[in-house]
Structure formats: structure tokens, C-alpha cells
Design brief:
Layout: H1 11-16, H2 22-32, H3 39-46, H4 51-56, E1 75-79, H5 91-104, E2 112-117, H6 127-137, E3 142-151, H7 155-165, E4 179-186, H8 189-198, E5 204-208, E6 215-220, E7 225-229, E8 236-241, E9 246-250, E10 259-264, E11 270-274, H9 277-283, H10 289-292, E12 297-302, H11 304-309, H12 315-318, E13 328-337, H13 342-349, E14 356-366, H14 369-388, E15 396-402, H15 406-418, E16 424-429, H16 436-450, E17 458-462, H17 469-479
Parallel strand pairs: 1-2, 2-3, 3-4, 4-5, 5-7, 6-8, 7-9, 8-10, 9-11, 11-12, 12-13, 13-14, 14-15, 15-16, 16-17
Helix pairs in contact: 6-7, 14-15
């Protein structure tokens, strides 16, 4: 009887090789002809797998035992607590394993070298130096370190390592790098500036929780995205990047006042800000007019101090941000229940092509009776003006953590008043700790909003988290 040929070898078929029994070797590997392939081909196949999958194939036979060391697959070491003790390893043990793999690997190149390790780790002064040396030798393109209590080497040490790796080459360092992400790894200004000038293919740079940088000049012709979070000593940030598309900046309330200058960013289309600097963007629009007019996507995580200040801001005197090209606006507002959000309704009128508005509200306390009364008077006075500001392009409104307070209800009502072309308003009520009385209020408010919908628009009330996924991603990312 003739037997049918084995199915084509796929990535899933290759994965099966790591759990083959003795009988499976005879019928599986022989059937695929894998045992007759040269080592070079097997290494190419293994390079399609991730590190864990490639190492698992070492149990197939003696011949396969060391093949994974020669692969060019991505080396990703992830040790993050997810609530399951079985998936987390004690940090010192985990990092020792990373060091061991680095020593054993003999392949010519590695595309990605990523180490994420949550928890307190030992401060080994040579560890990051060894990893940098490895990244240089393997011409790593994506380099990510997320470990606490470690310092990136200073420029002199970095150049010394570079000369050891490539003593006869003019261009030294991480010259193949396209993406660099450092979290909880302290690095100095001059080191980042050197990397920006020497890594001509660097497109993505992210630095979080740094305690060394004070005055950073970002000068790059290749950089496309830049993220700076919680650099506690950073006082000055100057950016000149002709191809920059996205900039994210998050600062803590206790950070020093930042002098931020975006001098040459003609392609910047996405901006995300968290913290006190939001106030400058909202209330000092002239300081940001060189680039605000070209933004297409804007995310503002506004602290309570600026939300409280917004009703007192005289936009007729100081103006609103110039957002002529903006299509998507996401606001994360920290407020006292009852505070007026009217300013943020007016903000949408500065965005003539805005099509999507998302708002996530967090209430830290209850506003004073005086503040609530003032907000109501301002709202009543502004009703007529809002009618004149009919928004021609706003199609979708998302309100997350809607609690039915007078402030967020009037906010929603005002948005419905100006959104003449609205197609959908989506409401997700507040977190699960809302009491039964507040939930009833939310439902009543929703019915009132439904009665004020523009013709053809629909109102959706959702209870799952999916609708707020984008905003929650921004909130988690900006709050780390």
C-alpha cells in the first residue's frame, strides 16, 4: 500500500520537533527528511522560532543539542509578574540565566535582544556592559532593557567596549540599532546624544524612569518616534528631528519645570502629554503654535490642577491651541466631581476636522458648592455660543467612567449640541465601586442624553472594557 507524502513543513510542524519521543524521531524526522538536512538549513529553520522554542529542540538528539546556539532568532527574556507564581523567576536567578545564554550563543547575528525583569536585582556593574558588547557583536537592531538598579555605561566606557569589538572599523558602537528602549536604567545625556548621532538607522527611542539626564538635545535625521517618561532630573529637552512622527512625554507632579523646545519637527503628527506640561499646551497656545497646527492625533492626560484652572482660562484673550489638522483627540481628565468641563468642549471647536473624541474621567474628590455653582453659571451663559460652534466633522464620541454627575452630564450635553454630524456616542459607566444610587443616576442621565441626540445618531451604553481599550492603554502607558 502506498503511503501519502508528509505534509509541508510549517512553523507549527517545526515546533512539534521539540517534543518528539524516540518513536516520534523515527516516524517524524525521517518522514520529513529532517535528519538528512545539513546543519545550515536546520539553523535557518530554528531561526524562525523564538528562543524558548529553539532551545526546546535540543532534546531531539545529540546532533540538535547545540544547534540553537547558532540561530539568528530574537533573544527575548521576559520575567514579569502576572499573578501566577509559576511564570515568574527570582530576578537574580533569571538574570544569571540571561548571562549564560549570552555566553553560549554563537550565531553571527541577532535581530532583537530584549530583557524585561520585574523585581529588585543585584547591581552587577559588568552585566549591562556584557550585554552591550553582545549587541555590538551580533549587530542587534532592537535593544530593550527593563531592569531596575542598573546604570548604562558612560560614554568613555561605551567607546572602550566598541573598540574591543571592532578595533579596525571606523564606525563603532551599536551601528545597526533601529530601536532602543531603556526602562529603570539610568543613562547620561551625552550617552544618548552620542547614540543619536552614531546610530544612523535609529527610528524609535524610549527612556523611562531615568535619574541622570538633566539637559537632553535630541538631534536626529532618522528618528520617527520618541518617548520620554519620568526623568526626574530632566530640566531641558530640545528636539530637532526632521522625520519625527510621534512624541510622547510624561512627567511626575514633583518633576522640575521642563523647558521643552520642538524646533524642527515638520512631520510630527501624534503628540501625547501627561502631567503639568498639559497646562502649557492648553493655556499657552502661542508657545506651541510651530507644530500644533500639524497634529493629527493628540492625547492629553490632564492633572486635576489644570482641569480646575480651565474654567477660569480666558480663551478669548489667550486663544485656543491651533489644531487645524487634528482628527483624533483623547482626553484623560483628573477632576473633582462637579467641576466644569466646558473648556474642553470649546477645545473641540479649535479642531475643525476632528472626527473622534475620547474622554476618560477620574474623580479624586467632590468640588466645592461654589465651584459647582460657578460652573453651572458658565455653562448657562455659554449655551448660545455653543450653538454657533456647530462641529461639521465630529462622528464618534466616547465617554469612559461616566458617572452621571452634573459636570459630566452637562459636558456630554454640550458635545451633543455642537456635534451636528454625530453618528455615535458611546458611554461606559464608572468603575465597579459605584453604588446602586449612582448607577441609577447614570441610566437616567443616559435617557436624557438620548432624547437630545442629533438626528441619525445612536447612543450605546457598554459595560465591558473593550470600548475604552485605547484610552486605557494611553492612561496605563502615561502613568507607567
Amino acid at each position: 500500500m502506498m503511503t501519502s507524502p508528509p505534509p509541508p513543513l510549517s512553523r507549527c510542524n517545526a515546533l512539534e520537533l521539540s517534543t518528539v519521543t524516540k518513536r516520534g524521531k523515527k516516524h517524524g524526522l525521517v518522514a520529513y527528511g529532517m535528519d538528512r538536512l545539513p546543519d545550515e538549513i536546520l539553523i535557518v529553520i530554528l531561526s524562525c522560532l523564538n528562543l524558548k522554542e529553539a532551545v526546546r529542540t535540543s532534546i531531539i538528539s545529540r546532533r540538535w543539542r547545540y544547534l540553537w546556539r547558532f540561530t539568528s532568532c530574537s533573544l527575548e527574556f521576559l520575567n514579569q509578574w502576572d499573578g501566577n507564581p509559576g511564570t515568574w523567576v527570582e530576578p537574580t536567578v533569571f538574570l544569571s540565566w540571561v548571562d549564560q545564554v549570552v555566553k553560549l550563543h554563537q550565531g553571527p547575528s541577532v535581530d532583537k535582544f530584549i530583557v524585561h525583569c520585574q523585581g529588585i536585582t543585584d547591581e552587577s556593574p559588568n552585566r549591562i556592559c556584557d550585554w552591550i558588547r553582545f549587541a555590538m557583536e551580533k549587530e542587534v537592531k532592537v535593544f530593550e532593557l527593563d531592569i531596575s538598579c542598573h546604570d548604562f555605561p558612560d560614554l568613555n566606557k561605551f567607546l572602550s567596549i566598541s573598540r574591543e569589538v571592532k578595533p579596525s572599523v571606523d564606525r563603532i558602537g551599536l551601528t545597526s540599532l533601529t530601536s532602543l528602549r531603556l526602562v529603570d536604567v539610568n543613562v547620561k545625556d551625552e550617552m544618548i546624544e552620542y547614540l543619536l548621532s552614531s546610530c544612523r538607522h535609529l527610528e524609535h527611542l524610549c527612556i523611562k524612569f531615568d535619574n541622570y539626564m538633566k539637559k537632553l538635545n535630541v538631534l536626529s535625521s532618522s528618528l520617527k518616534s520618541l518617548s520620554i517618561f519620568y526623568c526626574t532630573k530632566l530640566k531641558s529637552l530640545t528636539i530637532s528631528a526632521a522625520n519625527l512622527l510621534s512624541f510622547v512625554y510624561g512627567e511626575a507632579s514633583m518633576s522640575p519645570v521642563l523647558k521643552l523646545q520642538l524646533q524642527n519637527v515638520p512631520l510630527l503628527s501624534e503628540l501625547q502629554l501627561k502631567g503639568p506640561h498639559c497646562g502649557s499646551f492648553l493655556f499657552e497656545p502661542s508657545e506651541h503654535s510651530k507644530y500644533s497646527h500639524q497634529l493629527q492625533r493628540l492625547v492629553l492626560n490632564v492633572p486635576m490642577l489644570d482641569v480646575v484652572s480651565a474654567p477660569r482660562h480666558d480663551h478669548s484673550l489667550f486663544g485656543l491651541p491651533q489644531l487645524q489638522c487634528l482628527k483624533q483627540l483623547d482626553l484623560i481628565l483628573h477632576a473633582r466631581a462637579g467641576e466644569s468641563f466646558l473648556f474642553f468642549v470649546l477645545l473641540t471647536t479649535a479642531c475643525p476636522f476632528l472626527s473622534s473624541l475620547g474622554v476618560m474621567m477620574f474623580y479624586d474628590s467632590l468640588a466645592s458648592k461654589e465651584a459647582i455653582a460657578t460652573g453651572l453659571r458658565r455653562y448657562n451663559r455659554a449655551k448660545a455660543d455653543l450653538t454657533a460652534h456647530g462641529h461639521p466633522c465630529l462622528k464618534v464620541i466616547k465617554l469612559i467612567n461616566f458617572a452621571g454627575y452634573r459636570s459630566d452630564f452637562r459636558f456630554a450635553l454640550a458635545l451633543l449640541q455642537i456635534a451636528k454630524s454625530l453618528e455615535k456616542i458611546i458611554i461606559k459607566s464608572g468603575p465597579g465601586f459605584l453604588g446602586a444610587e449612582r448607577i441609577t443616576t447614570v441610566r437616567e442621565r443616559a435617557k436624557q442624553l438620548e432624547a437630545n441626540l442629533p438626528r441619525g445618531a445612536e447612543l450605546l451604553i457598554v459595560s465591558d472594557l473593550q470600548i475604552g481599550s485605547d484610552l486605557r492603554t494611553y492612561h496605563e502607558e502615561l502613568n507607567c
